[in-house]
Amino acid sequence: MKKNEIKLKSFGQMLNAPYNSRKANWYIVLFFFVWAYILYGNTILNKYAVDDEFVTNNEMIRKGVAAIPEIFTTHYIDQKGNVSDNTADYRPIVKLTYAIEYQIYQQDKPGRSHAVNVLIYFLLSTLLFFILKRLLKDYNILFSFLITVIFMAHPVHTEVVASLKNRDEMLAFLCGLGTLYFLLKYADTRKPWYILPAMIVFVLGYLSKASILPFILIYPLALYFFTNLKPKQYIPIFAVFVILAVVSQIGPKWLLPAGERMTSMMENPLYMEKGVLYRIGTGLVSLLFYLRILVYPHPLLYYYGYDMIPLTTPANIWAIISFIVYAGILIYALLHIRKKAVTAFAILWYLIFIAMYSNILIPVVGIVGERFVFAGSLGFCIVLVWVIFKIFRTEPNSLTIEFDARAKILVVVILILIPYAALTINRNREWRNLMDLFAKDIPYLTNSAKANTQYAGLLMRTTYEDPNFRQYGNVNQFKLEIMKDHFLKSVKIYPRNYQTLNDLGTVYLFFDKDPDSAILFLKRAIDLNAELEPAWVNLGMAFKEVKKFDSAAWCYSTILRRNPKQIKAYFALANVYNDMGETQKAINMNLDVLRSSPNLDVPYINIGNYILQAGDTTVAIEYYEEAIQRRLSFEGCVHLSNLYKSQGDTLKSVYYQQKANEAIANQP
């Protein structure tokens, strides 16, 4: 007998071990642990990525366990915007896990957070195996084992595991499975006390993410398929969890301030389009997308949004195909539900979970997303393994499987696992940081308005943060062209996005030194939203660059009429008056600010600039020195260094140049 054949038989014997074999169970758990870290161990090298600031890498989490009261009394999303705030959702358990991590390490450690994510994935996968083992107790253990192994390796899960923000999906799924575990314990023992931990774990899952909701339908379904409970015994359980979900949804509203999640065309056009036919048609195409990435998980993308899946009606050919496919698998499941066929359970599992993200019931952020199919993918994995067994004329519920059949099944599974693992490991590398992720995905996101804006916006932020730009105004021209290209692509996809138009105007004004183009885009932004204050500020600066001082003054005056406390606009207006030759008026405006806020440095800088332009170097130096006594600013130090150099005072010139370098280093 060959050595490899002996190993394969030993592995098969382990999987054919008695149902309650502790030794076999421990070997399997160890295998899952190693398998999880083979698949996702490289995420430990990753940094922060998309939306991680919601749950980690933020000031609230850095308070550690002291933040617990704040965590449980604030929204999950709490963003301040230029036009309105974005406050929504309640997922305190997720933030709590990160606060505990920070309490332990006392510093931001994204690698350790990623390691915890992998650990959670291992735990939920192990729990999944033992639940499958119980549900399929009359089946060969190899069946449950292979389902779990393929589930763990499926590349569509990379967004959930490799993204720290998406820990919420794993925690909700883990708690959903935990609740099912206790309900099965109740079904097997008829001991009512198992219902209490089931309820507690379910609430914890709901406080992680509302994606646990489909489990409410899964529980009675599983109890019907795999236990001897009568409907009158599990229907009350279903009612209990419905009540728990309602309480979990309503309860936090008593603790939280009023909030509202911003919705936009760029996220999902169905937020704006209320037609039922469009919702059904677009929803059917969305459902086809989920089947496609389960069967062929490439390319995987961090975001989709408008216009990756265009609005369509049920008459669309892809919507028709989707309807035929989904109707077919639903009919199959319903025809086999009385026989309690495992494939019927798997199909219903998938349909129940994916229905929440179909866009037919409610519009979904991003239209579609890989994380939305995370829980539902289990149904796909069950059917896939069942098909493999059937190909080799092997019944999954055979307690013993011949060596030849077992070998063929394992070979096919391995042939599936190799590309799955390769795709997963490679995709993890693409999640290493925000820039790498955006740059890798953007070639496939040519029709996504938001993705193009996000990539261009990230390039814009990194340019602002570049010391060469801060100190010398130097811009990488290649980077600038990419930035403009993707902002322009976004505007072409969605011309009415005033935020992107403002960003594009900003790029032309500050980086490309093209104020005329900036004025064009900024005016379009204001035409779409006259309340967009940053666009008014930028437009004023652009008018100033082309010497249209009256127009610049009008822009800043418009801001101050709406918001008299906008002190930056007040200073900008004073500067415009100086440019118009009304220097004394400009000086008086800055002196007015100093009377109420004597500790500000900006008025001294401004007045110093006005006086320097008038040719009085000595008095200008006095104002700059007054400014840096209040705040060590780069601008004030550079002015002083240059002025002392012009006066031949090398010692002071070098001193203030060092201070300027210190100021630029200390900028956030």
Write the layout of secondary structure elements.
Elements: H1 3-15, H2 22-40, H3 68-71, E1 77-79, E2 86-88, H4 92-105, H5 110-135, H6 141-153, H7 158-162, H8 167-189, H9 195-206, H10 215-226, H11 231-250, H12 252-255, H13 276-295, H14 317-336, H15 342-355, H16 377-391, H17 403-430, H18 434-441, H19 449-465, H20 467-472, H21 477-493, H22 498-511, H23 515-528, H24 533-545, H25 549-562, H26 567-579, H27 583-596, H28 602-613, H29 617-630, H30 634-646, H31 650-666
Antiparallel strand pairs: 1-2
Helix pairs in contact: 2-5, 2-6, 5-6, 5-8, 6-16, 6-17, 8-9, 8-10, 9-11, 10-11, 10-15, 13-14, 14-15, 15-16, 18-19, 19-21, 21-22, 22-23, 22-24, 23-24, 24-25, 25-26, 26-27, 27-28, 28-29, 29-30, 30-31
Please give a structural write-up.
The chain is mainly alpha-helical and 668 residues long. It has helices spanning 3-15, 22-40, 68-71, 92-105, 110-135, 141-153, 158-162, 167-189, 195-206, 215-226, 231-250, 252-255, 276-295, 317-336, 342-355, 377-391, 403-430, 434-441, 449-465, 467-472, 477-493, 498-511, 515-528, 533-545, 549-562, 567-579, 583-596, 602-613, 617-630, 634-646, 650-666, and strands spanning 77-79, 86-88. Helix 13 (276-295) crosses helix 14 (317-336), helix 19 (449-465) packs antiparallel against helix 21 and helix 30 packs antiparallel against helix 31 (650-666). The radius of gyration is 31 Å and the shape is elongated.
Features:
single chain, 668 residues, mainly alpha, two-stranded antiparallel ribbon, 31 helices, 1% strand, disordered N terminus
